């Protein structure tokens, strides 16, 4: 090996930076692929459950079906298939019945937070903002807790509210923003 290369810290740092970028880029692609496959899996499981229940989320036999499925799947694949998670997968499918509406830019954890929002317009707002602003799950939770959507609906100064939200400021009620 060339001793000049080994002794030249600048060259070593350049090689290190290049390799670091390759590793980060590869990790990001792997994460995106795993996320996409996990969302597909959970959506398809929710669909299968709804088909078994013939589209009736509240079918009387539904809980028995979930209990039996959960027991068998948990024994085979682990705790990710608890009754609670199977209910979440069913709800995921119910809220996003058209597969193309499931956006791979969001993680399962994002969807778990978004599924708590009953109002479709509000949920769609948070989906859009999460993607546009690249909110983490924690930031999404913070914005929902800060009632960003409700404040925007009431506000005459929507741009100012969005600007503050983007900067991560807690949105406090203010007459000039809400009037």
Proportion of residues in β-strands: under 5%
The run of helices and strands is HHHHHHHHHH
How many domains comprise the coordinates?
A: 2
In this structure, how is the largest beta sheet organized?
none
Given the structure, what is the number of helices? 10
Structural class: mainly alpha
What this model shows, in words?
- This protein folds into two domains: 1-104, no CATH class; 105-179, no CATH class.
- Helix 2 (9-52) packs across helix 4 and helix 8 (148-154) runs antiparallel to helix 9.
- Mean pLDDT is 85; it is low at 169-179.
- It has helices at residues 3-7, 9-52, 62-77, 83-95, 108-114, 120-133, 137-145, 148-154, 158-167, 175-178.
- With 179 residues, the protein is mainly α.
């Amino acid at each position: 090996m060339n001793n000049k290369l080994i002794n030249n810290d600048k060259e070593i740092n350049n090689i290190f930076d290049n390799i670091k970028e390759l590793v980060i880029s590869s990790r990001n692609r792997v994460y995106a692929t795993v996320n996409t496959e996990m969302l597909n899996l959970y959506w398809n499981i929710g669909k299968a459950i709804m088909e078994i229940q013939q589209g009736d989320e509240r079918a009387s036999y539904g809980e028995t079906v979930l209990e039996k499925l959960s027991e068998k799947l948990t024994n085979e694949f682990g705790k990710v298939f608890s009754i609670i998670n199977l209910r979440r997968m069913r709800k995921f499918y119910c809220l996003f019945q058209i597969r193309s509406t499931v956006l791979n830019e969001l993680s399962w954890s994002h969807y778990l937070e978004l599924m708590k929002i009953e109002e479709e317009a509000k949920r769609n707002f948070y989906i859009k903002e999460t993607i546009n602003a690249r909110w983490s799950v924690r930031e999404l939770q913070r914005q929902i807790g800060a009632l960003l959507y409700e404040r925007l609906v009431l506000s005459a100064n929507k741009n100012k509210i969005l600007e503050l939200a983007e900067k991560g400021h807690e949105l406090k009620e203010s007459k000039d923003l809400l009037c």
